[in-house]
Write a structure and sequence with these properties.
The complex is a heterodimer. Helices cover 70% and strands 0% of the residues of chain A. Chain A has helices spanning 15-23, 27-49, 87-122, 126-140, 143-154, 158-185, 188-195, 200-236, 248-255, 264-296. Chain B folds into two domains: 21-89; 105-343, MetI-like fold, CATH 1.10.3720. Classes of the chains: A mainly alpha, B mainly alpha.
């Protein structure tokens, strides 16, 4: 084949492209990443691909076991619950609630946290020290306790739960951004652009953010697995999504009374939570691994 | 010379302790501010949220308003709130009408017991397993341990609790599924820590009671300890890998020490110090897990009480619970920091500014 380029150009991949190159190496991480994409697809397409609506009752098919059991029915692949609602449809709709909303929560708190974090990295002295201690206090209060308190102020409900979790996650992002920005600010290339006369905001935008974005993404995956678990835990405790909503934690709480008769109503939502958290954690793990590899080179 | 050096070390330790305590007071101050502002944020009247006197007559309310200096500025209101706190007066529960402080004192020991036992179990299981993974780095045991760790900290705790009850208490019948001790035993309330109270009591059925309490403790402790244990595994693994990569280990190898000598004499001690530093941070996480576990196992601790007070909209109880639970976490945090500083002289160096 003829070579298009005669001169071998030296290519400098951006940090994100480098990250991707290192990220896709271990097969386990790629499996996790595919599961992650699969969950996103489920969350987006939930309304189109589900066979039934999440609240549709089939009164002649109450508590039907999954299709592989002897009493199962193939038109209800994963069985039904105590009100005859199709488990498969509810689980898929639940993906867009528990998993999909956790992504939105993380993006929102990432945006706020990064802004506060980079502003605080530019401050020094007593203001910075106060903020640091304040963050330490917030970070050492258990996240669930904080979320519960915010829910107590706002009142129960899915939307209020989301606000609570966003607020709980913000301090983590502030902390990570602040440390990462401070670390980069001490490096020589920042000094170089500072000598060129760049303002702090310009340095942040063009020099620092491209270099810390992978740290933020890695923190975001950690935050997301925490967000999934927190949304589900609040749903389970009856403080989050109201009962008819197919949120995984609320589904699990709904199934507890029927545990002995219909164990699948408890197993399946739990497995769904476990699966999505593992997929998220694998992506995060791959990210951190890729970062480490890049640092070593 | 040596005398001066030890003197210097002592002052360093003193300075370190003082710094920690000043941080602790600052933290408590912020926490009380947070809890004070919560009384404004919660729905309903601020004074009633603060005192929990839900059915007080207008005259009583006037007395309370005077006590909490409602007519003066915010700062003096806050100061009088602090005064009440220091006298141990956290108001009355809106549902049970008992003083919050006595409710908390009744329930906190159960949580302390559960959390501390779980922390110890997590440490004693997690750290050696993590070291093991580091020793077999990139071999089959390492991969197996990493997989277990990944599943362990991804599993939702409420689901794990329910499965544990189903398998171990209902199907196998090994352990009881709820509560702290069987109602057959009557144990006098001395320290509140069940196991210690049993040992202190002079009941003729002491050992049966002790066995029963232990059987009640095992399942919740395992459920609470699983996620922190897997985190300790990962921390211990990376700490050990870091240590094994250092020059002094190379020097020890060059000296001709065997592998086990290197691990036991040099690597383990240095790696454990690194893990201990992070234990404090994990404790808040452990308390979160313990709160949910208490609800599932009907454990009479402060976590299940707090969640119950959310259902009841008992705002005074929520404020009190927040202060007590967070202070407990801070105290454990500081204890671990001091232990770390006592073990590691490098940490005692005063760090200037951050």
């Amino acid at each position: 084949m003829a070579r298009d380029k005669i001169y071998l150009e030296e290519e400098f991949p951006t940090p994100l492209v480098q990250l991707w190159h290192n990220f896709k190496q271990p097969p386990v991480v790629m499996i996790g990443f595919c599961c992650f994409l699969f969950l996103i697809a489920l969350a987006v397409l939930a309304n189109i691909i589900t066979p039934y609506s999440s609240v549709e009752n089939h009164l002649d098919h109450l508590l039907l076991p999954p299709a592989w059991s002897d009493d199962g029915d193939v038109s209800f692949l994963l069985g039904t619950d105590n009100l005859g609602r199709d488990m498969l449809s509810r689980l898929i709709h639940g993906t867009s609630l528990t998993f999909g909303l956790s992504i939105i929560v993380v993006i929102a708190s990432l945006a706020v946290g990064v802004v506060i974090g980079s502003l605080s990295a530019l401050t020094t002295g007593i203001k910075s020290s106060f903020l640091n201690h304040f963050l330490d206090v917030i970070l050492s209060i258990p996240s669930l306790l904080l979320a519960i308190i915010i829910v107590a102020i706002l009142g129960p409900g899915l939307e209020n739960t989301l606000w609570a979790i966003i607020m709980v996650l913000i301090p983590q992002f502030v902390h990570v951004t602040r440390n990462a920005v401070k670390e980069e600010f001490a490096k020589d290339y920042v000094l170089a652009s500072r000598l060129d006369g760049a303002s702090s905001v310009r340095i942040l935008r063009y020099s620092i953010f491209p270099n810390i974005i992978e740290k933020l993404i890695s923190q975001a995956t950690l935050a997301q697995s925490a967000a999934i678990l927190d949304i589900a835990a609040l749903g389970f405790l009856g403080l989050g999504a109201p009962i008819p909503m197919p949120e995984w934690g609320a589904m699990l709480a709904n199934g507890i009374e029927l545990f002995y008769i219909a164990p699948w109503t408890v197993y399946l939502p739990g497995l769904a939570i476990l699966f999505s958290v593992i997929a998220t954690n694998l992506v995060g793990e791959g990210m951190r691994h890729a970062l480490k590899v890049r640092k070593e080179n | 010379m040596a005398l001066i050096l030890t003197g210097l070390q002592k002052t360093n330790m003193l300075i370190f302790t003082l710094r920690r305590f000043s941080l602790f007071f600052f933290t408590l101050l912020l926490l009380t501010m947070l809890s004070f502002s919560l009384s404004f944020l919660f729905p309903g009247e601020q004074l009633i949220n603060l005192t929990g006197q839900i059915s007080a007559s207008p005259e009583q309310l006037a007395v309370l308003a005077d006590e909490y200096q409602q007519q003066s500025g915010l700062l003096s209101q806050y100061v009088s709130y602090l005064k009440h706190l220091f006298q141990g007066d956290m108001g009355y529960s809106m549902t049970s009408h008992l003083p919050i402080s006595s409710e908390v004192l009744n329930r906190l020991p159960a949580t302390v017991e559960l959390a501390c036992v779980a922390l110890l179990v997590a440490m004693f299981v997690g750290i050696p397993v993590g070291f093991c993974a580091a020793i077999y780095h990139r071999k089959a045991p390492d991969n197996l341990i990493l997989t277990i760790a990944m599943i362990g900290y991804s599993i939702p705790v409420f689901w794990l609790g329910i499965l544990a009850i189903l398998v171990f208490s209902i199907q196998l019948g090994w352990f009881p599924s709820s509560g702290q001790i069987s109602l057959l035993f009557e144990i006098q309330h001395v320290t509140g820590l069940q196991l210690i109270d049993i040992l202190l009591s002079d009941s003729p059925y002491k050992w049966q009671a002790f066995q029963d309490a232990t059987r009640h403790l095992i399942l919740p402790v395992i459920v609470v300890a699983l996620a922190p244990a897997t985190i300790f595994m990962r921390l211990a693994r990376s700490a050990m890998l870091e240590v094994l990569d250092t020059h002094y280990i190379k020097a020890a190898k060059a000296k001709g020490l065997t592998f086990s000598q290197i691990i036991y004499r040099h690597a383990m001690r240095n790696a454990i110090i690194k893990v201990i530093r992070d234990i404090g941070l994990q404790f808040a996480n452990l308390i979160t897990i313990a709160m949910v576990t208490e609800v599932i196992f009907s454990w009479p601790g402060i976590g299940s009480w707090l969640i119950e007070s959310i259902y009841q909209r008992d705002y005074t109880a929520i404020q009190g619970g927040l202060i007590v639970l967070s202070s407990f976490i801070f105290i454990v945090h500081i204890i671990i920091d001091l232990v770390y500083a006592a073990l590691n002289p490098l940490a005692r160096e005063p760090r200037h500014g951050t």
